[in-house]
Specification:
Elements lengths: L35 E6 L3 H13 L6 E5 L27 H7 L11 E4 L4 E4 L2 H10 L18 H16 L1 H6 L4 H23 L11 H17 L14 H11 L10 H11 L56
Parallel strand pairs: 1-2
Antiparallel strand pairs: 1-3, 3-4
């Protein structure tokens, strides 16, 4: 399956299933405890956002989560981590089956995160940007006591503005560099990425978080790209002007979030590296997965608390992950 763009510049297919799960059920899918299953892969930065938000909001008991393996073929993500290589709730081997059950002629990407309606086995949506916002707004009735406001009304305009350029230049920017099919397209994406990272460094020099003095949706979206930067994007996608660990402000910011409950404890560095280096063979033909980098430095002191801020605002940190969702110690950062 080719990933490098034959047209030179990589353009992401953003034709996602726009159906929403809402409190009023206006699209035919009302919020109901136990009805839906969030399908993710810990390898995927877009899915990692949903894992973090679900955990911060304490939705584990009302929204179950299925975890696909880190590698896939051209057909889709598989449940090879589960006994019998089937999702234990949906009973399917591939996420593709839930898409085809609703849309037999579905011709777009089979992507994670995806919300699946358990009674019918049909996918509801894979619109990753809307999924996390709806978890904050439409699922509010089921948030844990002390859940943070990740998309507070007073900051939405600011959050939306930050999210727009972070998506274009950073979240998707690393892919525009990595999947570029020409030198010109690569260099354009490379400079756009690092120009934005420099601007974000300037912004975060004087404030602890991207919008306001608490963690918001904006921080979740930037974090999942930063967590993958040194293990993958720096080498695999040729984003090699600087490692994250060589950008002092962003590195401290990323470590601050990593050490915050709900962030670093969702990161599986083994899955992340296996996915990119094994699956994207037109970029890495041998499929060899790098051993490094050393991850212990994620747990070093960051000093960001000196900038003030309250990570969870008037809320509280989430409890530890439920046992079935704990990232193996050997897959994370260890002191």
């Amino acid at each position: 399956m080719p990933y490098v763009s034959t047209a030179g510049e990589f353009t992401r297919d953003q034709r996602y299933i726009a159906t929403r799960i809402t409190a009023d059920g206006r699209d035919g899918y009302p919020v109901e405890p136990g009805r839906y299953r969030l399908i993710v892969s810990r390898a995927c930065p877009w899915a990692n956002r949903a894992i973090i938000v679900r955990r911060l909001l304490g939705l584990e008991d009302v929204l179950s989560m299925g975890i696909a393996g880190p590698t896939h073929d051209e057909r889709s993500w598989t449940f090879d981590l589960d006994p019998g290589a089937k999702d234990p709730v949906l009973g399917i081997e591939r996420l593709q089956e839930a898409f085809f059950k609703r849309f037999p002629d579905y011709d777009k990407g089979i992507t994670v995160p995806a919300m699946v309606d358990i009674p019918t086995g049909q996918v509801v949506t894979n619109d990753f940007a809307q999924i996390t916002l709806d978890l904050s707004l439409e699922w509010r009735q089921y948030h844990r006591e002390g859940a943070p406001e990740l998309y507070p009304e007073a900051l939405r305009e600011q959050i939306d503005k930050v999210n727009k350029f972070v998506f274009a230049d950073v979240n998707n920017g690393v892919y525009r560099a990595g999947f570029a099919g020409s030198q010109e397209a690569y260099e354009k994406a490379y400079h756009r990425l690092f120009d934005r990272l420099d601007a974000l460094s300037d912004l975060l020099t004087g404030q602890r978080y991207l919008a306001g003095d608490t963690i918001t949706e904006a921080d979740v979206r930037l974090f999942t790209t930063l967590a993958r930067f040194d293990p993958v994007y720096h080498s695999h996608f040729k984003c090699n002007r600087s490692k994250l660990s060589e950008m002092p402000v962003l590195w401290a910011y990323a470590r601050d979030l990593f050490q915050t409950p709900g962030f670093g404890d969702t990161i599986d560095f083994v899955h992340i590296k296996k996915h990119y280096y094994e699956v994207q063979r037109d970029i890495n033909p041998t499929g060899i997965v790098p051993v490094g980098p050393d991850l212990a430095n994620w747990l070093t002191e960051h000093g960001r608390e000196k900038l003030g801020g309250r990570p969870f605002g008037d809320g509280t940190p989430p409890p530890p992950p439920v046992p079935a969702e704990v990232v193996p110690a050997e897959h994370g950062a260890r002191a």
